[in-house]
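Pilot study result, target chain (164 residues):
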Amino acid sequence: MLLQHKHRIVALSCCLVWAAMGAVQGKEQGMNQHARGTFEVKLAPQPSTDLELAAVLGRMSLDKQFHGELEAVGKGQMLTGGTAIKGSAGYVAMEQVSGTLQGRKGTFLLQHSGTMNRGVPQLSITVVPDSGTGQLEGLSGKLEIRIEGGQHYYDFDYSLPSAP
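Predicted structure:
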């Protein structure tokens, strides 16, 4: 069991190094396309199997509807963690997006990582490499969100191979 745990740690460490190298490569190559629009999101708390941890850790289902240059549905799972300090928390999520991106149809995965440090947010939402299907095969990119007046907006910088 301990050996399996060590193997997982090594595999995770390798993934983090590869991710860092990919982030540098992505910045060098640059994203050559941009999509923007609005979205609605519904979060539904999911039951916890550990009542002691439920006070600190939470799990939610994600249900999104994207509008604009990305017309799609997003479905996913979110894990949250809060602290005793007001304004400090974190979340991670995986989301499958299915629809049309500027006329090209397919699916892809988004990986979310967010922290709030005493009210100061930091958020990273990245397309999982090699997750694009259909006409979105080869998609890479980063998505940013903002909320203004209760409305959710997205800005999506991405690269996509030429249409076949």
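One observation from the pilot: The longest strand covers residues 104-117. A full batch analysis is planned for the follow-on phase.
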